[in-house]
UniProtKB/TrEMBL annotation:
InterPro entries (UniProt xref): DgoD-like, Enolase-like_C_sf, Enolase-like_N, Enolase_C-like, Galactonate_deHydtase, Mandelate_racemase_C, Mandelate_racemase_N_dom
UniProt-recorded name of the protein: Mandelate racemase/muconate lactonizing protein-like protein
Keyword Magnesium on entry: yes
Organism: Mollisia scopiformis
Keywords (A to Z) from UniProt: Lyase, Magnesium, Metal-binding
Cofactor requirement: Mg(2+)
Keyword Magnesium found: yes
NCBIfam families: PRK14017.1
Gene Ontology BP terms: D-galactonate catabolic process
Ranges that cross the membrane: none
GO MF annotations, alphabetized: galactonate dehydratase activity; metal ion binding
């Protein structure tokens, strides 16, 4: 059995954390443990995992996953599960490369040949969406997502919602579909009004209409609107997901493969969602390794519907983007709203390790932005 000989991690701009695992025969696998705004915490967790897992059988991915989950007493949460995700994805990449096949072949084989995708427009304070949507359409996208609002008070002026409706109308006028991300920044008194205002204009979905700690509130909102409810980026395991499925509160599940324990747990969450007739649309405003891992799961998942990708997202500043750090960035070319399924072994992308090491030198951790209201109060970002 191949043994884990070395585990390394690399903090790289704009805000990603890559994991490299090497076995005792020199075979390499890459994973992504990015947790936006909490890089140092995940790095500390990885330090502990490196000591624990060096020397273990690299092919025993499920045993390593279960060891991480069950031996340690405390479990779950964004930090633990993001660190685990980086290791899990890298082990799947390594195992599939050893066998010379894409990861999806180890997940039961493909059920589709191409993956529907969408891109971001508008930024954290959304504006100029018509021109940005036109640019996305020229890139080959047929669907986009944008933040619904800027920062918003618990009970704000109803007029604060009007711009969101106009932005959706502007994008729809171009013949494109649009998802509206409430981003958890809209509280219940305003979320009810915004969902009602958007409903006649038929967005693809409304995302995180309330924060995920409010299961009953999301359930109530889902019963008041015909718009599909999407959420999941702040749910970190199948146990976190279960209450939303049992409540019938979600139509589209959006787990993040770098936050929910990697390929192993994403596949289990997808299968669980299928039993509730809930679609999978993974969250991924992250790097090429995370996106490639999502594509591998999407290829083998019947209830997958659409994939977020970070090409040109407003967080990708400083020259690094989804097409960075790889030798084959052409895999992200979009045509008629789809990307082709990668055919190469493992994740299907080839990491430019020299670039990773060069840009990781002195890389600063990304700090989450925030909003302050007019009274000096902290608002949800």
């Amino acid at each position: 059995m191949p043994k884990i000989a070395k585990i390394e991690y690399f903090r790289v701009p704009p805000r990603w954390l890559f994991v490299k695992i090497t076995d005792d025969a020199g075979l390499i696998g890459w994973g992504e443990a990015s947790l936006e705004g909490h890089t140092q915490a995940v790095e500390g967790c990885l330090d502990a995992y490196i000591e624990r897992y060096t020397g273990m059988d690299a092919d025993n991915i499920e045993h390593i996953w279960q060891t991480t989950w069950r031996i340690g007493f405390y479990r779950g949460g964004p930090v633990f599960m993001s660190a685990l995700a980086g290791i899990d994805i890298a082990l799947w990449d390594m195992k599939a490369r050893r066998m010379g096949v894409p990861i999806y072949q180890l997940l039961g084989g493909k059920v589709r040949d191409k993956i529907k995708v969408y891109a971001w427009i508008g930024g954290d304070r959304p504006g100029d969406v018509a021109n940005q949507a036109k640019a996305r359409k020229a890139q080959g996208f047929t669907a986009v997502k944008m933040n619904g609002t800027e920062d918003m008070g618990w009970l704000d002026s109803p007029s604060a919602l009007d711009d969101c409706v106009e932005r959706l109308k502007a994008v729809k006028a171009l013949g494109m579909d649009a998802g509206i991300d409430f981003h958890g920044r809209v509280h219940k008194p305003m979320a009810k009004q915004l969902a009602r205002a958007l409903e006649p204009h038929r967005p693809m979905f409304i995302e995180e209409p309330l924060l995920s700690e409010h299961v009953e509130g999301i359930k109530a909102l889902s019963q008041q609107t015909s718009i599909p409810i999407a959420l999941g980026e702040r749910l970190h395991s199948r146990w976190d997901v279960r209450p939303f499925l049992e409540a019938g509160a979600v139509d589209i599940l959006q787990p993040d493969i770098s936050h929910c324990g990697g390929i192993s747990e994403m596949k289990r969450i997808a299968a669980m969602a299928e039993t509730y007739d809930v679609a999978l649309a993974p969250h991924c405003p992250l790097g090429p390794i995370a996106l490639a891992a999502n594509v591998q799961v999407a290829a083998a998942t019947p209830n997958f519907v659409i994939q977020e990708m970070s090409l040109g997202i407003h967080y990708n500043v400083g020259g690094q983007d989804l097409t960075s750090y790889t030798h084959n960035p052409e895999v992200w070319n979009v045509e008629n709203g789809y990307i082709k399924l990668m055919a190469g072994p493992g994740l299907g992308i080839e990491i430019d390790e020299e670039q990773v090491r060069r840009f990781s030198e002195g890389a600063k951790p990304w700090v989450s932005p925030g909003f302050i209201g007019p009274g000096g109060e902290v608002r949800e970002w």
